[in-house]
Structures are given as C-alpha cells and as structure tokens.
Amino acid sequence: MTTTPDDRPVRLFLVDDQELVRAGFRMVLDAQTDMTVVGEAGDGLAALDAIEATRPDVVLMDIRMPRLDGVETTRRLQERGDAARVLVLTTFDLDEYAFAALKAGASGFLLKDAGPAELLAAIRAVHAGDAAMAPSTTRRMLERFVPDLPDAAAETAAAAQRRAALARLAPLTQREREVLEAVGRGLTNHEIAAELFLAEATVKTHIGRVLSKLGLRDRVHMVITAYETGLVGRPE
Questions:
Q1: 69-89 burial by CB neighbour count: b if 16+ within 10 A, else e?
Q2: Staple partner for 176: which of 74, 97, 110, 172, CB 3.0–4.6 Å?
C-alpha cells in the first residue's frame, strides 16, 4: 500500500470532459492545506500520459468521456501498476458504469452532486487506503449488475470459475476467511468484532493481512472478492 508522508499534501489529478467541472473541483481542492491538484485532463487518453508524468496519489475520474472512458482508463492504470488510487465520479447512484470501474480497480465512487465536505472526506478515505463508499453499497451493486446464469452450460463454466476463484483464498487462515466473508456482507469493523468475538484492533489486523495476501487494494475489493469466490452468495 502506497503512503504519503504526513507533511506532504495529497497529490490529485482531475479527469473530466467538462472544463467547468474541473475548475469547480480545483477551486475547492486547492483551498485545502493538505491537498494539491497536480494536473487535469479532458479524456482518458490524455490522462494516461499525464498521470504517468505527474504521479498523483488520487485520481478523480469521470466515467463517461470521449475517446477513452473512465472505466477503460482505470483498467489501464491498474494494468500498468500505477500507484494512484481512483475515485470515480458518477451522476447516478448504483450506476452500472461505476460498478464496472470498481471491477477495473477503482477504490470507490462519488456522486457528482456531492457537497465539498463529502468530496474531501472521500478523497482522504481513498488516500488512506479505505473505501469511499460503504461495503454494503458495493454489495448492492454486485447484486444488481452481476447477471444470473441462464443455462446448464453457463452454470458449468461458472462452477469452474468459482473453483479457480476459491483457489485464490488458499493463503488465508480460517479466521481471515471469516473476516473476509463478513466484510463481503457489508459489516463494519465494529460489527465484525462483535460477531466474531474479537477486538476491533484484531479485526483491522486481519483485514490488513487479507489485503496483503490477496493483493487487494482496499475494502471495496475485499467485497468483490468475497462475492466472486462464493464466500458471500447472491440472495434469493
């Protein structure tokens, strides 16, 4: 997990095809003593080169843009191993594009009409390695946008994929699996501690180990992994 020294402002990069939107964000963000905007771009293609040059900590990424949208831009950033965390900007809650961006590696999403306080809190959460959305929201997105499998052939293929996914959990201890499953159900650290009779500090330690062992970026991707591996199933 990449960290930034406490005395260095969080480096931000803005990607949005509307110049006025970028200007509004920049005005709010540059007014913060712990943040600085290091660059901006009007589409994904322009952003890829500029992000590599400016090395921001957090990218505020619009979803629907010309030339290269936010989903594909996020995917390419993750594929090349870019350390920047992505906070997706979307117009609608539970947007299928926002879900696709989470799957591609984004660390959370934020509605474009969010107020300044919510925007700043989301940026700080993502930079700290947390998720800028509740795990329960990620869970609802998974339930809504992952399709049911309609036939036997698809079910067979899905079973093979599930077995391969389960193999990913081999490095985890039983307790770590239990914590991952609880995170996948959208429980908070406090709720997990109560359910598993653990101290909250112990829960945080287990979460850190799960993230490290499975190579996950944050809590959002713990939820996705719990769902993909079958630790958490889709409700009937």
A1: bbbbbbbbbeeeebebbbbbb
A2: 172
